[in-house]
Amino acid sequence: MDTSFGFSPIGIVHSCFSEKFGIPRQPGLVPAARATLEILPPYDRDEAFRGLEDFSHLWIVFVFHGIGKRKWQPTVRPPRLGGNTRIGVFATRSGFRPNPIGMSSVVLESIRRDHGKMVLDLSGIDIMDQTPVLDIKPYLPYADIIQEAVGGFAADPPRSSLSIEFTPNALQAGMLLEKTYPGFCDLVNQVLRADPRPAYIGKRSTESEYGVRLYGINVRWRVLKTTIIVHTIEKFLDPSHMQ
Prior knowledge:
Blueprint: E1 11-15, E2 34-39, E3 57-63, E4 75-76, E5 87-88, E6 101-114, E7 117-123, E8 132-138, H1 141-144, E9 163-166, H2 168-177, H3 184-193, E10 208-214, E11 217-224, E12 227-235
Parallel strand pairs: 9-12
Antiparallel strand pairs: 1-2, 1-8, 2-7, 3-6, 3-8, 4-5, 6-7, 10-11, 11-12
């Protein structure tokens, strides 16, 4: 029996998350997080998607392409356990697996053609920009919702006690971006409220500063006790492209 397999992507995700930092740790935690899934030839045939428009949610099976090559380890450190406790890799959804395959349940907003390309509009995503997609499956509530399921160490959704404030300049910049990226300010609020910082940092009481890129926009904020203050929203400048 042949136990080796090769897969070709059927599509590419174009996501609001320009980098790994800031991506919510599970789908659905940031409803304002949007993406388009561009279907690649020869899979972009209308008949291959006939009937999919009747489903509200999808399962996206994808490759963790942004984590780099690393030898797999039998244990990992889940953020939900503070980043210090090791647990078996197969008891987690960590991207550092023998085969770096992930899956996410996302909202299907629409299916359309854009300049001839087949595109699926998605929301509630937790997938980085340019992620290769291996498969799409419809979400079936009667089978995929298991009322008596037990969630182990992640039984309940994460809850944050952080409040979000924008400086006047940051708020103005965010509102201007709403014209190009509708819901941008909601996206910033939801991403930061989910607290993308490493788990161990939450125990620090000193002020710290962080940044995340959303749609290629640099969002910078500082944390003061239990308040996140967003002070900069500007186009990201890659130093490697500067003279």
